[in-house]
Amino acid sequence: MQEKAIPIALLKRDIIGIAKSGTGKSCAFLLPILEDLLKRENKNNSILRALILVPTRELAKQITQAIDDYSKYLDIKRVAVFGGISNKEQVRKLSNGVDIVVATTGRLLEHIKNNTINLSSVEKVVIDELDTMLDMGFLEEIEQILPYIGKNRQISMFSATINSNIKKLAKEFLKDPVVIEVTNQRDHVEKIEHQIVLVDEDNKSELLSYLIGSKNISQVLVFVNRKLEADDLVKNLNLDGLKSSCIHGDIRQSSRALALRKFKEKELRVLVCTDIAARGIDIENLPCVVNFSLPETINDFTHRVGRTARAGNDGVAITLLSVKDYKLMNEIEKELMLQIPRVELVDFPTKEKKPRTKTREKKSIKDKKIEAKQRDSKDKTKTKKPNKTKFRKTTKRG
């Protein structure tokens, strides 16, 4: 992504970048922004030049940290704008002047309405994880924000997939965009070691603890679909002696940040999260991801397993599969061109009724020849004899 996007961005062309998480998108859009800011002569008074919109607080913090890393020896001022915390510090930084704002849409709209931010000077706009933002229902908010930005702007949209809403948004706000697509999502998924463990739904929690302990997994990110499911699972894991915590939408931002920090520093062994809360989470050398519950979409599956095996490292993705998800798992494998073997553990035999599957018996060549002869003989007996036309005899009279 960096190789293809950076030269286009430096030409100030609008971009639609299609690539999965972990392909270096952050660097692809941050370096051109920093390069442009570096050329500015008047650095005494920072003027807002770049706006980066993201779906979650975690991703906002991650990108802000990336800005700090890349601009370590530059005089760049940035601020992260998101909800869940007091906005007083954000207002103070904005009033003192900043070069880059990284924001979630909801809190940014609050600042716009309160006149604590002016977007008219923004020249570069980046919308990251756009497909996720649309899935979360932020299309209307994005459409409200973009008109506040001056006409002399360059917009880059990055998404793992492209759909009709993304095309509609691009048609409305982008000028002759360059479309950059980097690898298919299945390319990365194939490099991950996948495992499927068959288990009854009621035994999933116990099996997860057994797998973490027996495989001696030092660090594991576990995905669930519901907030209550995450809370209950953390309780069970801690009772089993596995230090765990969770992050989801109902948990305060400070608690989410603390849990993520402890997990990265390996003070926690297990971090349980929902899909939305996990967007933007980047953990270096994460060895294992577990699908405790199968996600509802193939795109979410690729986002989940993509948390491991990043930057060329090894990683394992384990899916705990119960009968109710057999059909969806088959669809995921078909779409991603995967064939993952199923394993059933001796200590956790499955009792749920499995769907019937048609299996063809293997027949020998001799049996196949006999069947072919029988079909031929039946076909001959079925052939109809031609009808004989009866002619009437006539005699000529002279």
From TrEMBL:
Signal peptide: none annotated. Residues 381-398 have a biased composition (Basic residues). Residues 6-180 form the Helicase ATP-binding domain. It holds the Pfam family DEAD. Residues 350-398 are annotated as: Disordered. Residues 191-356 form the Helicase C-terminal domain. Keywords: ATP-binding, Helicase, Hydrolase, Nucleotide-binding. The keyword Nucleotide-binding applies. InterPro entries: DEAD/DEAH_box_helicase_dom, DEAD/DEAH_RhlB, DEAD_box_RNA_helicase, Helicase_ATP-bd, Helicase_C-like, P-loop_NTPase. GO terms for molecular function: helicase activity. Residues 362-380 have a biased composition (Basic and acidic residues). The keyword Kinase does not apply. Belongs to the DEAD box helicase family. This is RNA helicase. It comes from Aliarcobacter trophiarum LMG 25534.
